[in-house]
Protein 1
Amino acid sequence: MERIVCKHAHPPIVKEEIWDEVNKNREVRAEASAFFREKPALKTGVTMLKDLIYCNECGKKMTIRKDNKLKLFTIKKCEYVNDRGEKCSNAGVKLEHVERNVMLHLKKYRVKLKQTLESLNTQEDLITEEGHKDRLKRIEEEIKKVEEKKCHLIDLALTGIFTHAELKEKRQELMDNLAYLKEQHENLLTEVNNRKSEDMHEQLEGTLSKIKTIEESKNHPEELNQALKLIIKKVYYSRVLPKNIAVKSTRSEIRKNYPYELKIEFY
Ligand SMILES: [Zn+2]
């Protein structure tokens, strides 16, 4: 015989703290990381990308060096040697190219963030979050009532007033109702969680204002470096010359102009 299990399942509660926590952590992480990766740059002075460039081939941090003869900065060829004695093949490049490129990436990133912000604004005419929460609460109360009714079915069955068929029908009715309510609850919950737009709004605005600071401190490498570290986690740099080009003289134009690739990891 089928048993009616009497359990008051508590519907999940909306955890807005989680969202706040995650975003707070992001900021803290960026700041902590900026603090820990600081290394004195006595020889080179602070450049815009100090401590930010990583080798895309082996993952090691790349060295920025001042070339006194040429009076310019370069990203040094990666010097990592793995356990099998193989040298990393990532070649160096003049730093200024990479700096310009990072700024370009940043510009694109800013445009993307602005678009996201605008699309958020168009969603704002939806019902307020408060309204959502009230509805959630009402549905939760209804679910509780239906669950209780389900439990009382056992008492009803014991009284012997209703036939088995009638009880079965009542039970089905309650089950359908419950399924409907739970679906409603689920949908609403998804909506509420998607509607964290206000927090996202704030976060996007924050990043955008940081990018603005970066663009304004163009001529102050040290400030620029600090500001960049708040939004960029790592810049992955890759410039692996094919063998036929690597054997050419360092003065070869083809070798000198061989392109590099950047991938930027933002916070
Ligand atoms: Zn490497």
Protein 2
Amino acid sequence: MTVRHPGHPDPFSEGDKVLLLDRKQRRYLLTLRDGGEFHSHYGVLAHAALLGQPEGSSVTTTKGSTLLAVRPTSADWTVKAPRGAQVVYPKDQAMIVALADICPGATVVEAGAGSGALTSALLRAVGPSGQVISFELRDEFADVAERNVADRFGASPDNWQLRRGDVVAGLSGVACDRVVLDLSEPWTVLGAAVEALHPGGILCAYTPSVPQVMRLHEALAGDARWGMSQTTETLVRGWHVDGLAVRPDHRMVAHTAFLTTARRLAG
Ligand SMILES: C[S@@+](CC[C@H](N)C(=O)[O-])C[C@H]1O[C@@H](n2cnc3c(N)ncnc32)[C@H](O)[C@@H]1O
């Protein structure tokens, strides 16, 4: 089934994902079904009220509340999709794609797949001419990743391989342009990653804590085949804008993780 992107000219139809927003901007994700109903403290909304309507329509529940209906963006999916493992948030997904230069046509190895949130961002960035090979150690998380990615793209993409097992063993014999790691001990993967990456290729590791960053840099510095290593952190602060009340939001997702990148050198 084709997933229609936000702004697609077709009206809502069965199988479409819809994001509902209430007046406080709370968000609910649902899949439109013939005869389906959305239940909340606002009452009931029959899916039939949305079928055939253009995106951006407002609909009324049985209790008279108004909900705005749009197609979800990739960021909405990330936040709302079912998860097993903790996901990489949109702000970090975007920076991983930028800092690791995940480009159309690239072959990207990722570990672990977790809930498949970062996987989806990588698949979009490499496009149909590229490929993503994801490793996941734990079967229960691999199942979640498989479901979420299939749900996100309408079916499991042809250019995606999900390999169940340890990335270190799995990288043997693999050749790639990028290695993206979201696992607790990325330094244990460096030996296998340096063999897999083409010279000039990029490693990117997502690690929440300072000791992880220190240990990773130590390991990178200990192998002359790595260079140009750097670490950044991404803070995105929302603003409250309402007439003259214009100020930073009181709350934000502040620290998630550090991003460390390094280049595979020749030799
Ligand atoms: C935080 S989760 C990844 C979340 C994922 N990036 C997302 O956005 O949905 C970390 C995952 O790495 C997996 N993992 C840890 N060590 C691994 C290894 N050596 N090989 C493959 N997967 C591994 C864990 O089982 C876990 O599911």
